[in-house]
Amino acid sequence: xxxxxxxxxxxxxxxxxxxxxxxxxxxxxxxxxxxxxxxxxxxxxxxxxxxxxxxxxxxxxxxxxxxxxxxxxxxxxxxxxxxxxxxxxxxxxxxxxxxxxxxxxxxxxxxxxxxxxxxxxxxxxxxxxxxxxxxxxxxxxxxxxxxxxxxxxxxxxxxxxxxxxxxxxxxxxxxxxxxxxxxxxxxxxxxxxxxxxxxxxxxxxxxxxxxxxxxxxxxxxxxxxxxxxxxxxxxxxxxxxxxxxxxxxxxxxxxxxxxxxxxxxxxxxxxxxxxxxxxxxxxxxxxxxxxxxxxxxxxxxxxxxxxxxxxxxxxxxxxxxxxxxxxxxxxxxxxxxxxxxxxxxxxxxxxxxxxxxxxxxxxxxxxxxxxxxxxxxxxxxxxxxxxxxxxxxxxxxxxxxxxx
Length: 404
Ligand code: ADP
Prior knowledge:
By secondary structure, the protein is α+β, with helices and mostly antiparallel strands. It is 51% helix and 22% strand.
């Protein structure tokens, strides 16, 4: 009886042990499966985070506005490409404070302010130094649903170009008003003097009428030049490009301006390396030559000599030079003479009837021909104005024009 009871108990214990062992192995396998599932989930989570970050960077970097994101301690989390370029940021700002990375107190205090004010719009920032500029900065605090601060986002809008255009426009209007007011005041003064009795004296009368004529001419030149400038700048000026032979054009222009040259005994000399044909708008090109020759007469000496030269400098380009034997242009004014209303000697130029717009018109016209214009530094023989024009294609089937 006892041996068979022992066998039954032992068999039961063995079966129980085997059953537990199987359960243990099953549990171990399930644990391993869970581990690998967890690892997979972790990879997916990291991938999603990296993807979102890449998406955010791509989005901010495609913006023309500069973007800066900082945490609630003022440490920079992100700066987009546009802002790096705007403020010429050479170091990596991420992880640094705004003041460390940007060295701009205004931005630092703006970031601090926006933490309490929640949003600041239209903050104007002017940068000095090597990269001067004007910016409008809009700032907002980044908050969660409970209103806790997580940082700030600043958006920079570059206004430098707009501001510069505004300044140019303001200067231009001021200059034009001044230029118009001066001859008008003189004309008005003469008319009042005539009305006050000067008209009874024939000598005084003709003197005042001459002044009136001179200043009305000046007003007319000024208005014509202003209209030309505005036409050229707006791009509304129609350009009719075609082949233009230079020699006949030079001769015509010299002939047109001969009467004025004769009053000062100025002579012209045309020098062309060979017969040259350029691709140009003949009327605009004539205007360039008239303006340069007119200046050579105005500012050159009495009895002086003016050369008009042209040569091909390569297969595609012709260079034209107008050279006089006057006082020349000092090197420090070589760039500025092409600016609107720039004059070397204000009083003398006005006296000579200059509007201050002649060379600016020359520059616009040459540039609209894809050419370059410059003045050589003063040489012993006076000023030397140079410009380039494209050569007319040799196989052009249209017959060259010379301005007829
Ligand atoms: P303006 O109508 O006053 O002549 P421009 O734009 O043609 O205006 O010329 C600008 C200034 O450049 C002139 O006021 C003058 O001081 C200077 N300038 C131009 N051409 C000459 C020249 N050939 N010789 C000396 N100075 C010149």
